[in-house]
Amino acid sequence: MTLRNDFQSQANALMVELDDSTSVMMGMVCSHQTIGPVWEAASMRQSTSFGRLAAFLKRSDHFGPALG
Hints:
- The chain contains 3 helices and no strands.
- By secondary structure, it is mostly helical.
- The longest helix has 28 residues, at 3-30.
- The two termini are 27 Å apart.
């Protein structure tokens, strides 16, 4: 596997997790479930997912200079 393929694979996995965690939160908003421990857990998951993707991109040679 090339570095580019490895980067794309890792970035894709991180984006899928962020998309899924955001979709869960959006569903909770639509059903008016925006308080309580389930909401807090969903919010923490989404925030963590975003942080992981942002950190990954900042470490990259291509995106790091633009983000950092």
